Each structure stands twice: as structure tokens, then as C-alpha cells.
Amino acid sequence: MENCLFCKIIEGTIPSACVYQDEKTYAFRDINPAAPTHVLVVPKTHCSGLSAVDELDDATLAACLRTVKKVAEQEGLTGGFRMVSNCGAHACQSVPHLHFHVLGGEQLSEKMV
Ligand code: AMP
After folding, report:
1. Distance CA 38, CA 105 (A)
2. CATH for 5-104?
3. In the prediction, which pLDDT does 17 show?
4. Interval between CA 35 and ligand 1 midpoint (Å)
5. Within the chain, which residues score under 50 in pLDDT?
6. Rounded to the nearest whole angstrom, what is the distance from the C-alpha of residue 37 to the centroid of ligand 1?
7. Strands 18-21 and 37-43
8. Domain boundaries, the chain
9. What is the pLDDT of residues 91-103, one digit of tens each?
């Protein structure tokens, strides 16, 4: 989609530190990491967020979760990790392209928020 930051990252017009990609998904390092490992997993097909997920086919949605798992393995997050997807204004979603934060590499807070 035109003017979507993550679509531009996926197509390569904006640089990113890619850690994994396949036919349906793209994973890259968050520019402002909140943990020692902080990777964003996105579908290559544009979707604004979880509230618009009906626009995505099931295979792409499932592929995102499989990529989260692959990234966690690849990054050596054997102690565990957290996946977060902010959706909408109350959750402070700042980029309107569905993304899953994969956070780990240290003991994370017990608190969800
Ligand atoms: P959210 O606030 O949940 O929408 O998450 C958006 C995330 O995108 C934030 O954690 C940002 O640090 C990250 N981000 C923004 N621009 C870039 C970029 N150019 N490359 C990598 N991560 C980015």
C-alpha cells in the first residue's frame, strides 16, 4: 500500500535489518528496541492491524505465527519470549500495518502493561 512504512520496508525502498523472510512474511529488527531481542514480524500483504484481520487469508495469518516461532528459535530465545500486537489508538499502535513484536533475551516484566 502506498505511503505505508512497513510496505516500503518489505519492498526494500526503506532499509531494514531483516532477520527472516519467506513468501508470506517479513521479519526485521525494531529500530527502537525495547528488549535485547526485539523483532517485528509482518505479513507481506498489507493489513492495517488485528481489527482488519478479516482482510488477510488464513494461510498468511498462520504464516505470521510460524514466523514468530522461527524468529524466536533463530534468535536463541530458549528462555522464552513475548509476542505483542498493538491495535488502535488505546494500544498506541503507531504503524498501521499488522505487526507482531517478538521480545526476549532477558527476564521480561510480569506486568503486561
Ligand atoms: P507499534 O507502536 O506497536 O505500532 O509498533 C511500531 C514499531 O515500529 C515501534 O516499536 C517502532 O520502534 C518500530 N519502527 C518504526 N519505524 C521503524 C523502522 N524504520 N524500522 C524498524 N522499526 C521501526
Report:
1. 9
2. 3.30.428.10
3. 98
4. 13
5. none
6. 14
7. unpaired
8. 5-104
9. 999 999 999 999 9
Cell 512497513 locates to 6
Query: In the 3-class helix/strand/coil scheme, how is the chain assigned residue by residue?
Result: CCCCHHHHHHHCCCCCCEEEECCCEEEEECCCCCCCEEEEEEECCCCCCHHHHHHCCHHHHHHHHHHHHHHHHHCCCCCCEEEECCCCHHHCCCCCCCCEEEEECCCCCCCCC
- Nearest alpha carbon, ligand 1 atom 17: 31
Neighbouring C-alpha atoms within 13 Å toward the C-beta of 90: 1
**pTM, 2 dp:** 0.98
101 is catalytic: no
CB-ligand 1 contact for 32 (6 Å cutoff): yes
